[in-house]
Amino acid sequence: MTKLAVDIGGIKLKNPVMTASGTFGFGQEYAQFYDLSLLGGLVVKGTTLNPRLGNPLPRIAETPAGMLNSVGLQNPGVDYVIEKELPWLSKYDVSVIVNVSGHSLEEYGEIVERLDRAEGVDGVEINISCPNVKEGGMSFGTDPAIAEDVIKLVRGKTKLPVIAKLSPNVTDIAEIAKAVEAGGANAVSLINTVLGMAIDIKKRRPVLANIVGGLSGPAIKPIAVRMVWQVAQAVKIPVIGMGGIVSVEDALEFFLAGASAIAVGAGNFHNPRAAVEIVQGLEKWLQEEKIEDIRDIIGALEL
Amino acid sequence: MVQAITGKVLSNELVAPDFYKLDVFVGSMAEEIKPGQFVMVKVASGLEPFLRRPISINSVNIKERNLSLIYQVIGKGTKLMTNIKRDQNLEIMGPLGQGFTWKGTDKTAVLVGGGCGIAPLVALAQELKANDKDVYVLLGAQTKDRLICEREFNKVGAKVQVATDDGSWGFHGFVTELLERLLAQVKVDQLYCCGPLPMTKIVTRIAEKNSLPCQVSLEERMGCGIGACIGCVCKTQDHHGKIDYKKVCTDGPVFDSREVVFDD
Q1: Chain B residues closer than 8 Å to A32 by CB
Q2: CA distances from B155 to A60, B125, B126, B129, B150 (A)
Q3: Which residues of A touch B91 (CB under 8 A)?
Q4: Do B1 and A32 touch (CB under 8 A)?
Q5: Do B17 and B67 fall into the same domain?
Q6: Is B69 contained in some domain?
Q7: Are residue B161 and residue B118 in the same domain, yes or no?
Q8: Which of A155, A186, A251, B245 could serve as B233's disulfide partner, Cβ 3.0–4.6 Å?
Q9: Contact A57/B243, CB-based, under 8 Å?
């Protein structure tokens, strides 16, 4: 029997496959296609203290092997998420992680306090890397001192495991990872989207109303693998790897680079069954390779 | 129930310059489809293009378990769709979105379609006729040869009028002028509209002026097609004036025209 279970800073996942925030709604959307209990974990849409309308249109642009988005954290606010979205997920045997975004330190703290009291939350993912909001978001995740402060503050507000979601839009991601580890993060997840831009040459205008947006999809996979590898060597806490994963082969690159779990993001749009196909593919691959425990390949990269 | 299936292509043929009709066997999905809904199609294998394409459903044959899509070649995705061959497999997800609705008390409906937006109105006309409604169909196209589906509307017994930009068929002018003339003559209960945005805006204004309910089908770039990515929203306003962004894929694509805020 192949062992797929992993522990991500206190969050027990029965398999190491998750879905990335902002690509999976609150789960219901994909429950139409498969049993969510087949997944290890599920990270719900970025949640803010108050409801957010999000950015103007157009919000998405397809690019080579990927897409740009500037949704801008449209969400119904943390109280609505706790009351209306999370209870529905309780019938599934899957770890639920809520992605949290604030525009001030206080706001991060307030949201996490409310989630700490809520039912059905297995962990919080602190989004210090959203490129699509004017205040907060990425600005918290590009300065190591500020990143550490945010994590330290939320760490003091909850008993739940805290995951810091890191931005690739920095010179040295390992430095940020070490800072959030020092701040008390139980795990890191990376990468968020890469800041990008597309131009409509006929109109001579940016395609996105927000001018710039976050690039995701297979186009960013090599960047993500490189950063997961760098971070896995720099910190002792577990790494959740993501960025352009659409297949089991993609997922395996991340495990070898040092990720203890992986998440499927834009890949869900490409193939709505991508995450569950990766769970099945992993099991098959490990059996074929006669590897009994997924943990044997985590960080098993040979140089 | 939304399904993500592998369908079988029955045909993919040019029906007018830049317009193709794609017939696909979709099994039990066919039974679930309502007029105005759409499907997401994976237009080529591999990673390019990365996203599926939302295509409205033109008509359904429940007995044969197949559906027809009509698409206009506009960009990279629809250009690739022209390469789809008979008998090949096609990844298709649907039916998606909220379609058109009607009330039992409605007697007379007017359908206004322009360009590729005419396609989903065929399924609607079929259903409305099956429900004993009096159906007027007003179609707009650039030229006679770029007009689609006229025969299908005639076949179901709708009263069809055509407007072309160059006068090569029917009325020489805009389809919205046909609408204003018709509303001056006939008592109408419900308007339906699908077409280019400028046309939809004018139809919405005409509906308002005549105090008629109007359902408009909107188009937007989509990521997931099922409400998860929130990329395809449209600006809306409720009756208290509260602004919101609703998802074209799951709250729409059909909206009450009074709800939609058209930014100029």
Answers
A1: 1-2, 226
A2: 40, 10, 9, 11, 9
A3: 271
A4: yes
A5: yes
A6: yes
A7: yes
A8: B245
A9: no
Residue to substitute from B5, B45, B47, B80, interface A, most A β-carbons within 10 A: B47
Using a pLDDT cut of 70, give the percent of chain A over it: 97
Pick the last residue of a domain from B50, B65, B96: B96
Is residue A133 pLDDT above 70, yes or no? no
Identify the active-site residue in A71, A78, A112, A130.
A130
The complex's ipTM works out to 0.93
Mutate one of A269, A270, A271, A273 to test the B interface: name it (highest B CB count within 10 A).
A269
Domain that holds residue B139: 108-207
Same domain, B33 and B120: no
Domain count, chain B: 2
Q: Is the pLDDT of residue A42 over 70?
A: yes
Query: Are B49 and B117 contained in the same domain?
Result: no
Say whether A130 is catalytic. yes
Residue A108 has pLDDT above 70, yes or no: yes
Chain B contact set for A269 (CB, 8 A):
50-52, 223-225, 228-229
Residues 6 or more apart from B79 whose CB is under 8 A from it?
Answer: B73
State the architecture of A6-55+73-194+216-296 in CATH terms: Alpha-Beta Barrel (3.20)
pLDDT along chain B (264 residues), means of 10: 96 97 97 97 95 97 97 95 97 98 97 97 97 97 96 96 96 97 97 97 97 97 95 94 95 97 81
- Which residue in the set A63, A67, A74 is minimally distant from B223, CB to CB? A67
At B104 the pLDDT is: 95
In whole angstroms, give the CA distance from residue B141 to residue A303. Answer: 63
Task: Report residue A134's pLDDT band, with 50, 70 and 90 as the boundaries.
Answer: low
Three-state SS at B143? coil
CB count in 10 Å sphere of residue B36: 25
What does pLDDT average to over chain A? 95
Bond into A87 cis (ω within 30): no
If asked whether residues B199 and B123 sit together in one domain, one would say yes
- Indicate whether B131 belongs to any domain: yes
> Looking at residue B156, which CATH number applies to its domain?
3.40.50.80
User: B219 contacts in A (CB within 8 Å)?
Assistant: none
What average pLDDT does chain B have? 96
My answer on whether B7 and B74 are in the same domain is yes
Domain residue extents for chain A: 6-55+73-194+216-296
* Angstrom distance (rounded) from CA A289 to CA A277: 18
